[in-house]
Amino acid sequence: MEKVLEVKNLHVSFKTYGGEVKAVRGVTFDLYKGETLAIVGESGCGKSVSAQSIMRLIPNPPGKIKHGSILFKGMDLTAVKEPQMRNIRGADISMIFQDPMTALNPTISIGEQIIEGVLQHKQVTRQEAKKTALEMLDLVGIPNPVERLKHYPHQFSGGMRQRIVIAMALVCQPEVLIADEPTTALDVTIQAQILDLFKEIQSKTGVSIILITHDLGVVAQVADRVVVMYAGKIVEAGSRREIFYNPQHPYTKGLLNSVPRLDIEETELVPIGGSPPDLFSPPTGCPFTARCAYAMEVCDRKYPFKTRLSQEHHVDCWLQDERAIKMLASIK
Ligand code: SF4
Q: What integer pLDDT is reported at residue 110 of this predicted model?
């Protein structure tokens, strides 16, 4: 499969009065053409910071991409100058945020907002831009688009506003769409409609989607592959089937155990006790040690190697690594 994006050994930090927060610590993943890759994990695990780094939206200062590369069409986005990055944003890589109301300007009609996006990135006339805007509104399921183009954001419901934000993100036919918690602010029925819309749009346009979420229900519905992040690192990754039916990292298992399941009777939800480590001074060993029921001595001393379980499935956990005992002997 063709790779559209390659993130390699990405490190992102933030300078604060209390010290340096190491928010993303060596993240590596690929995105293939036409797939949906879900990045999951609890708040503060680094999933949104990783996504914003791809768009180069990390404010510097206080944030900084300290190390690593983000390859898109042979370009390293970490080294691209800001004017070129402005052209890439929206045209090649687009982003959808959680709350559609904050993504839309309340004082400008949605038609103007979409047309402006087209005119900024494409050499077309205003009439052609309007035609594209109408086609996009139609694609995302806004009824009567000719009339609705004149309306303002407050004249739409929450679900409709999110559809408009999706239309704006896709209007220049980007190759990559990053959706950061796109359904969190919506109720469940609208959430299901928006997820169906993602699948429909992907089958029509072939766009590759990075879906950032903490909601495993959303992941189960739309993801092809899943990356699980914890304390700024990818601790497990695999196909949707591998992550849901054969999770190997205790944190991934904990996430799955804390989600209600309708297919099993009388299951008790088991929360993950404790809290994530302080990223001012992240532990040298496995960051999940303090919360892990299977933690061994080696876990606290050294970060586990990556164990490959299949072509897609890999996990960073000493439980999967037969070198754990040898490693402990060597660092004692
Ligand atoms: Fe638990 Fe150790 Fe595996 Fe970390 S490396 S998840 S502490 S068993």
A: 94
